Amino acid sequence: MKKEQAVEVFAALDNGEWGCGSGYLVGPRLVLTAAHAIVVEVSGKRSFHTLSSSQDIRCRVTGDDTLFHGEVVWRGEGADLDVALVEITDGTWHKDRVAPVRWGRTTCQKSRVDCTAVGYPQVLRLSGQRREREHLSGRVNPAAGEKSGTYHVLVDDAPTRHMNDDSPWAGMSGAALFSEELLIGVVVIDHDGFDGHRLTAVRMSEVFADTEFLRHITEHCGAPGGVGKTKNFPVLESAELATLFSGRRPLRRPRTPATLLTAQVAAVRWFHGREGRVAELQDWLASPEPLEARLVVGPGGYGKTRLAAELHQRALAMGWITGMVQADQADRLPIEPMARLGSCELPLLLIVDYAETRPDVVQHLLRTVSTEAGHTVRLLMLARSPGKWWESLWGSTWQLQEAVALDGVEVLGPLPEDCEHRGEAFREAALDLAQALPKVRGLDEVDWTALAERITVPDLSRSRYGSIMQIHLAALVSLLQSGPTSVATANNGIITHEDLLITHEKPYWRAGAQRHGVALGDDSLTNAVTVATLMGAADRDEALAVLARVRGLDGQSEGQLMDVDQWLTTLYPPSGTGRWGALEPDRLGEHLVGVQLRDWPDLLVKPLAAATLPQLHRAFHVLARASVDHSAAREALRFQVVEQLRRTGPTALSVALETEVPEFLLELLEEGVQAALDDPDTLAALAEAFPVKAPELAILAEQVTRLETAVCRRLVSGGLSRYLPQLAGATRRHAEQLHALGRTEEALVVQSEAVSLYGDLLDNAELTGRPSS
Fold first, then answer.
1. Strand 182-190 to 198-203 pairing
2. Are residues 669 and 688 in the same domain?
3. Radius of gyration over alpha carbons of the chain, in Å?
């Protein structure tokens, strides 16, 4: 809730006096209020909202004594829908930008949902028809008031009602009731029998049933994203589960050209070439099974997140509770929403992006949800590939085993090679981006639509254009290069669309840095964006620890580093719980990392030395993906793993079992093990990180078990006999994987060694009188 959007509402009564109420700006000129607060006559102690509206409505915002004229554009019908919308028609009205509203409802059975409201009760009258704001807090119990479509607000620190007097809450009617950041109701009544401790609010779920209300909200407030062709219809989110889902607000004004390519902004219309996929997912939602899960995999840029976002929007329109789960670790899942998750009464769709990096989050969600009493739950996981993480997660989670088959992985493949099909996607993207570009600061003076109609469709037959993101990237760069800020490409090494777009991004980096008092050159700014994209930061302490070690920033004072941190927090919208946003889409961020490491090979040495384990884990994922196309990223990863195996080895192993490109990391681990054969502490740290169960993918499993066997053998031969059980187990698993690959003779040799090792364990147990492991 934004307290500055609370409004005093006055209505001229037929007795010459003014009726007073409260309201809330839900759009630049649209006020939500109670219908009885704007009627023309008084009936007994309360003006009923079924009476005629006053023709003289005035509104006043905090900090401004001006009374602005307004007119009623919608009122609820029926005895219970005591809600109205007032449009401010005054030509002198100046508040043309207000924070977008997120609408909500209670969805779970558990009681005591915190809520708050700001209004202007008569008891706080000042001179000159002015009133102080009252910021009340309280709780609602979702079950109370269901039949009448209301919430009963149990108020904290309520004033005492005096006999034969008006309610102390008179004038509070029309105040918007919020829970978390969601507007869930409109305050209308103070119940006589509760001594001022209980107010009633009309639920927004009742108001949303009125199509005229929704029409006015859509027309006045527009799409939350505001940049694509598709206008997002207002929807109701879950009040109790709001903080479980991604808090990334749709952007009314994209910050940079690259932001237009993100799924959050969705500047380009839904790509109908994927319509079959989203239709299949909608059928999946309609399945009669109480709990089902799906894993959708595909390379970066193939449209996984956009597919999930499209399903998310359609599920919301169908009345589902849904969202992208934002926590990147299970211990960061919000406690209160998780406690309520199992009691959600509406169909629930949970979306987990980058699931390969968050298997513990998936496990925790599945253990918490409930499918009893007819509850419907769907879990959609997105990942680059179904690596070891998937087999391990599936094998260790019985709920997942019941919800999806191990081989029930859906691959999002490339677009058809039909160039006409791809050309149509390019032209659609160019036209949509042309409409969105004027919303980017500094690009509003160009007729982008005219440019879009003139640009030539490039040759899209190459394999890279199997990625829809690459087509959108080509369209955006073609537009920018046709405009007044085109980038020269001769003799400066800029050859790819990614290079060009990053170059177009840099003026926004400079402008943002200047606004935050950051006086650094382009190289230093780019280094900072690169490290932020690669590592992220959970809080200010992590941010400052990293920034102090970035090339070009290492001589800055703490105050200057704090300015850099503030600049980075505003540059790109953060995802999940992170403090900094990354340069997106992912492929663009990976390209930035690879190119910057080419120019500054030691860029990451000091920052990664200060990294926390989550930062290191994220950095290794990004570096592993970037290393496919960038040799500098491969060299940076090699240094981190081989030269610092004791600290980074467990993280490298974890990422190798999650990423779609594990081979290079496993090679580095083998190289690091060979270099550390005389360092038992390093080998022991790595040995403890190996999984108890070998990966299900045969080739990967053979590599992992062979590596584990080598590490444990070295530890045992060095006198650390406590690793003998692990060596025996690793050897047995290695033999099994060799057999699975058809390498029978090798498998027999290794199996014989395993039998011998288990014999040694048995002998040791008999000698010591202790059971073997």
1. antiparallel
2. no
3. 30
Number of domains forming the structure of the chain: 5
Express as a percent the part of the chain with pLDDT over 70: 90
Place of tokens 């040995």: 687
Q: Is residue 618 part of a domain?
A: yes
* Domain-located, residue 567: yes
Q: 167 near 161, Cβ under 8 Å?
A: yes
**Helix, strand, or coil here: 277?**
helix
Whether residue 173 sits in one domain with residue 90: yes
Query: In angstroms, rounded to a whole number, what is the distance separating the alpha carbons of residues 189 and 80?
Result: 11
Concatenated DSSP letters of 399-410: HHHHHS-TT-EE
Whether residue 87 is predicted with pLDDT greater than 70 in this model: the reply is yes
**Over the chain, what is the mean pLDDT?**
87
Q: Is residue 245 part of a domain?
A: no
- Which of 142, 121, 148 has the alpha carbon at shortest distance from 20? 121
pLDDT of 163 reads: 41
Q: What is the pLDDT of residues 251-268, one digit of tens each?
A: 567 889 999 998 878 888
The model's confidence at residue 339, banded by pLDDT at 50, 70 and 90, is: very high
pLDDT band at 8 (very low <50, low <70, confident <90, very high): very high
Are residues 322 and 177 part of one domain?
Answer: no
Q: How many CB atoms lie within 10 A of CB 332?
A: 14
Residue whose pair of structure tokens reads 């004033």 in the numeric block: 159
pLDDT of residue 165 exceeding 70: no
What is the end-to-end Cα distance of the chain in Å, rounded? Answer: 58
Whether residue 472 is found in the same domain as residue 498: no
302 and 445 part of one domain: no
DSSP secondary structure string for all residues of 15-59: TS-EEEEEEEEEETTEEEE-GGGGBSS--TTS--TTSPBPS-EEE
Q: Which amino acid is at 529?
A: V
pLDDT in tens, 655-665: 888 887 788 99
Domain extent for 428: 419-483
pLDDT tens digits, 540-549: 999 999 999 9
Q: By C-alpha distance, which of 130, 139, 141, 197 is closest to 167?
A: 197
Are residues 272 and 173 both part of a single domain? no
570-596 core/surface letters (b: 16 or more CB in 10 A; e: else):
ebbbbbbbbbbbbbbbbbbbbbbbbbb
Place of tokens 């032209």: 427
What is the distance between the alpha carbons of residues 646 and 258, in angstroms, rounded to a whole number? Answer: 38
Distance CA(486)–CA(657), nearest Å, equals 43
* DSSP SS3 for 289: coil
348 has which bridge partners?
321, 377
CA geometry: angle 41, 42, 43, nearest 5 deg: 120
Looking at 378, 411, 444, which one is the last position of a domain? Answer: 411
- Answer yes or no: do 382 and 436 share one domain: no
In a domain, 233, yes or no: no
Mean local confidence (pLDDT), 402-415: 90
Beta partners for residue 293, in sequence order: 379
